[in-house]
Amino acid sequence: MLTINNLSKIFNQGTINEKKALDHLQLHLEPEDFVTVIGSNGAGKSTLMNVIAGTFPPDQGQIIIDDKDVTKLPSYKRAGFISRVFQDPMSGTAASMTIEENLIMALKRGEPRRLRWALNGKDRNFFQEELKKLNLGLEGRLTTKVRLLSGGQRQALTLLMATLKKPQLLLLDEHTAALDPKTAEKVLELTCTVTKQSHLTTLMITHNLEQALSVGNRTIMMHDGRIILDLKGAERANMTMNRLLEMFEKASGVHMNNDRMMLAGTF
Ligand SMILES: Nc1ncnc2c1ncn2[C@@H]1O[C@H](COP(=O)(O)OP(=O)(O)OP(=O)(O)O)[C@@H](O)[C@H]1O
Ligand SMILES: [Mg+2]
Predict the structure, then answer these.
(1) SS3 at position 41
(2) Ligand 2 centroid, distance to 177 Cα (angstroms)
(3) Which has the closest alpha carbon to 206: 231, 171, 253?
(4) Exposure check for the chain: N or C terminus, fewer CB within 10 A?
């Protein structure tokens, strides 16, 4: 479904600040894979998502989605089939617009601009049905401005917007990290439900090792722009957090003080 070939990205090349954020990275995802991505700060996780989404071009390598080479496709064209949710609950929705205005934008993504604002009763019913599934009482608040919602409500809405028009690929960059634990759990649950129901292919960055092992069907660990561990099947099912920490230390040569660092998000 997604094939990444020999992908490299170097920031500030030729300067004292040169940084190889992606180093000849190889990755292949099957349709409906849900891959969790872990790794230390600066490992290259967000850069990988940025290059997949076309935020900036790679220095080397290809990104192939469903047999189509998208490496040179501009990000606004990729937005038609790649959806992203970021850590900041304020970033994914337009605060000064209503819930239904945000949803219509998401629904008409990729369509000609003049059609984007046409909102009919059928759309409204559809939005209400979808909002009901979030179980946050938002179905009765279609004309509420998004700025009046809580961070958790906004992030749930962002997730709904990202998946309303089924994307070929869903990219989640620590999308629950800024929420309180209870809300984070709820948004994660929603993530699991929607990805399963819509048969999405998903990459999810997380600093929470427990989440990384319990959600999805595969876990990759990045270090210095490379994938240093790739867990699936029985090996993943039998993996413990302590063992994962040990494997990280062995593969990367970096020693952690304790596994709490990884769980606390400073890993
Ligand atoms: N736009 C940029 N310009 C210059 N350097 C960058 C840029 N984006 C990322 N980098 C550098 O590339 C490296 C990888 O960064 P990246 O954001 O991908 O890490 P990450 O794995 O997402 O880390 P974190 O867990 O802290 O979010 C870092 O050294 C970072 O400073
Ligand atoms: Mg990051």
Answers:
(1) coil
(2) 11
(3) 171
(4) N
Tally of residues, the chain: 267
**Which protein residue's CA is at the shortest distance from atom 6 of ligand 1?**
11
For residue 213, how far is the Cα from the chain centroid? 16
* Token pair belonging to 263: 């769980």
46 close to ligand 1 (CB < 6 Angstrom) = yes
Report the run of H or E that residue 29 belongs to, with start and end: strand 19-29
Is residue 256 within 8 Å of residue 249, measured between CB atoms? yes
Find residue 170's DSSP bridge partners.
Answer: 83, 202
Contact indicator for 24, 36 with CB cutoff of 8 Å: no
Secondary structure class of 149 (helix, strand, coil): coil
How far apart, in whole angstroms, are the C-alpha atoms of residue 169 and residue 200?
7
Q: What is the mean pLDDT of the chain?
A: 90
- Give the number of the atom of ligand 1 that is nearest the alpha carbon of residue 43: 21
Which is the closest atom of ligand 1 to the Cα of 9?
12
Domains in the chain and their CATH numbers?
Answer: 2-81+167-264 (3.40.50.300)
Task: Give the burial string for 193-226 (b: 16+ CB within 10 Å, else e).
Answer: ebbeeeebbbbbbbbbbebbbebbbbbbbbbbbb
Beta-sheet pairing, 202-205 with 34-39: parallel
Identity (one letter) of the amino acid at 209?
L
